[in-house]
Amino acid sequence: MSDLEELWKSLQEAVNSKSLLKKHLTPARYERLKNKMTKFGGTLADCIRSGCKNPDSGVGIYACDPDAYTTFAEVLDAVIMDYHKIDKVAHPQPSFGDVNNLGFGDLDPSGELIVSTRVRVGRSHASYGFPPVLTKEDRVNMEKVSVEALQALEGELHGQYHPLDGMTPDTQQKLTADHFLFNDSDRFLKAASGYDDWPTGRGIYFNQDKTFLCWVNEEDHLRLISMQKGGNLAEVYKRLVKAIEQMEKKLTFAKKDNMGYLTFCPSNLGTTMRASVHIKIPKVSQMPDFKEVCDRYNLQARGIHGEHTESVGGVYDISNKRRMGLTEFEAVTEMMRGVNEIIRLEKSA
Ligand code: ADP
Ligand code: CIR
Fold it and tell me: Is the pTM of this model over 0.95?
């Protein structure tokens, strides 16, 4: 049996899987897509390996490269519309709003509930594939161009690059525990080739205060991150917008007309923006309708060390769930509205 046939068989056997892959890769679609290949040499097996090996995936499918969004559109479009809650695959032009008049500032001025605020976007070099089709040499070359662009950042964004290769385990652990750095512990990403050639080509750039950071060759080629203690979403967002605008001038990123910026995981397409707070909500999080409240406001709750981790001491990571079909300003505003409601509920509980 071929690699793809085995993956497909295990997906058929995973009768309890609730993943979007399971839902949308129907037998008819599988038959039509199984022999296709992208311009980068990527296959359907490359896209679905993680979801077939991890039936508890939420999404379960990755794009092996930018061209997968065309070659495997039949299944990816269905997943995209379901995840981002849109009825057609369409995305507006980037729009950050009027940064001098955002209509929000500090979401928790008393500092009682919000521990920290973070907004990130992903970016992909237009001329390279995603992890399943990359070589070690690609990873090294991408790291080089990314770091050159980062090192030209000015003012508050100015910082240093720290490759993972050669970083002491102590430093890595400390940076990860403090929520700045990634590691290779996500089994979903691992099964999707996300850690191939680890740690080659990976690293982190940050400014002196660690309020602007960039992950190089983690899940995406670049993850631009702005974060700080407390709830001042406006400061965090404005810093990120500045970084995006400066990086756009130096590098060409993968984009598609109806999809916005292209990323490895279809859940990140479009704005690619995840705006989050670490927030103490011991009462709200115990309410039977906590999940319903999150769904109503298009929020996603994650644990304290990110996706697929647990909450500690009633602190949750609350962020916007949708990233496509809305502008950057709308995505951050969606998160702001939901977090305001969660704060209201926690205080009145
Ligand atoms: P990503 O946001 O990059 O998709 P994760 O959910 O894995 O991925 O989170 C990455 C890291 O960012 C984790 O260490 C997580 O704890 C940290 N993080 C996320 N949101 C916040 C926040 N508001 N404050 C501090 N750290 C955060
Ligand atoms: C899953 O399907 O659960 C994983 N592949 C993660 C999906 C979303 N992750 C992400 O956006 N980083």
Answer: yes
